[in-house]
Amino acid sequence: MIDLRDRDIMSSMEAAKRWMKADDYVRQVYRKSPERFPVGTIRKFGKQLVVTRKGMEVVTGETEIEAKQFASIRRDPNIRDL
């Protein structure tokens, strides 16, 4: 049985926010390239997409913490290149 209280399972919009992406990021990636998500890391319930932490890490190539760190670096006007 899936425990929906698990923080490793989240809505597509919550995942996008946690990884500092546009609100529709997960939906766009899933629509264009569903094979990028490993089997069992994303599922559609009606109109709602639910994704796991592992799915987001594979698709984005970074952990949630790394995504937040890189986002803060990208916003820093004193840093020109990454």
Could you explain the architecture of this structure?
20% of the residues are buried. The mean pLDDT is 88. The chain has helices at 12-18, 25-32, 53-60, 64-75; strands at 9-11, 42-45, 48-52. The chain is built from four helices and three strands; from the N terminus they run E-H-H-E-E-H-H. The protein has 82 residues and is an alpha+beta fold. The chain has a three-stranded antiparallel sheet with strand order 1-3-2.
Number of helices: 4
Average pLDDT for all residues = 88
Instruction: State the low-pLDDT regions, or none.
Output: none
Helix/strand structural class:
alpha+beta
Basic shape? globular
User: What is the C-alpha radius of gyration, as a whole number of Å?
Assistant: 14 Å
| Number of β-strand runs | 3
Report how far the terminal alpha carbons are from each other. Answer: 42 Å
Largest sheet: 3 strands, antiparallel
Q: Which percent band covers the strand fraction?
A: 5-15%
Can you give the helix content as a percent range? Answer: 40-55%
Q: Which strands sit side by side, in order, in the main sheet?
A: 1-3-2
Element-level helix/strand string: EHHEEHH
